[in-house]
Amino acid sequence: EGMYGIGREAQVPALLDAYQIPYVFSDPLVLALTLHKGLTKRVVRDVGIPTADFEVVETIEDVEKVNLSYPLFVKPVAEGTGKGIDSKSKVTSPFHLINACESLLNQFNQPVLVETYLSGREFTVGIVGTGPKAKVVGVMEIVVTDKAPESVYSYTTKENWHGVVEYPLATGHDYDMCAQTALRAWQALGCRDGGRIDLKMDDYGIPNFIEVNPLAGINPEHSDLPMLAKKNGITYHQLMGMIMDSALARVVNKVKSTELK
């Protein structure tokens, strides 16, 4: 992963493609697209996957064009790990919206995603594999308890989750709905090998797409993907094996294709 610009997550894979060096995880097109939450939501919405109504605010003047019902939720359009999300992210009036957008525009120097606030439960879905071979390895609910310093799943809360956030596995109908929605989004976006899809339910209990993480953290201690896999009976080594098997399949197919030529 690169360090700068809206295409930073696509820079290293693009170089590897240029030198025909195999690698794990999604290609430059997917990584460039999915870093921009607004553009990603447009693609997801186009294939009929539920996602909250939204606007992208590029300048403070754009706030006046926002025509969505309050409450709203605001965050940087191209950050991860909860960066830019805190107790001020949920806004209930035009005054608070202007202040929140102005702060994020200045702090992150990038557009702001403004979404209709989803009031329901939040889930993250772990996926391994590519295309029709992709499968869900676990669905985990994210429950921010009253012990947390903020009521939202912010950067601070994620990094200091012990004792303040609970991660129960989803089961039954909740699991089925979340798994189906996440897998559809993963395949529609062309993601590969392994990652996560974040969902949140609306007022009617329908899981809505929030965002995709095609370069999910793989720290065995505190990254969500290994955590939810472990809760589902999949060891860290097994998870890494699934991801590598998906990536190696591309290499094998490429070798076979070259031999046929």
Write the topology of this structure.
Elements: H1 8-18, H2 28-35, H3 37-46, E1 54-57, E2 72-76, E3 90-91, H4 94-108, E4 112-116, E5 122-128, E6 135-144, H5 155-159, E7 165-166, H6 172-189, E8 194-201, E9 207-213, H7 224-231, H8 236-260
Antiparallel strand pairs: 1-4, 2-3, 2-4, 5-6, 5-8, 6-7, 8-9
Helix pairs in contact: 1-2
- CATH topology call of the largest domain: D-amino Acid Aminotransferase, Chain A, domain 1
Number of helices: 8
Which stretches are poorly predicted, pLDDT < 50 over at least 5 residues?
Answer: none
CATH superfamily of the largest domain: ATP-grasp fold, B domain
Structural class: alpha+beta
Shape summary: globular
Largest sheet: 5 strands, antiparallel
**What's the overall average pLDDT, rounded?**
94
Q: Please state the second-level CATH architecture of the largest domain.
A: 2-Layer Sandwich
Sheet with the most strands: spatial strand order: 7-6-5-8-9
Beta-strand content bin: 15-25%
Number of strands: 9
Q: How many domains, as an integer?
A: 2
Give the SSE string. Answer: HHHEEEHEEEHEHEEHH
Tell me about this structure.
- β5 and β6 (135-144) form a beta hairpin.
- Helices cover 38% and strands 19% of the residues.
- α1 runs antiparallel to α2 (28-35).
- By secondary structure, the chain is of the alpha+beta class.
- It has a five-stranded antiparallel β-sheet with strand order 7-6-5-8-9, sandwiched between helices. A four-stranded antiparallel β-sheet has the order 1-4-2-3, with helices on one face.
- The relative contact order is 0.15.
- The longest helix has 25 residues, at 236-260.
- The protein is built from eight helices and nine strands.
- The mean pLDDT is 94.
- It folds into two domains: 53-117, Dna Ligase, domain 1, CATH 3.30.1490; 118-260, ATP-grasp fold, B domain (D-amino Acid Aminotransferase, Chain A, domain 1, 2-Layer Sandwich).
- It starts with 7 loop residues before the first helix and ends with a helix.
- The protein has helices spanning 8-18, 28-35, 37-46, 94-108, 155-159, 172-189, 224-231, 236-260, and strands spanning 54-57, 72-76, 90-91, 112-116, 122-128, 135-144, 165-166, 194-201, 207-213.
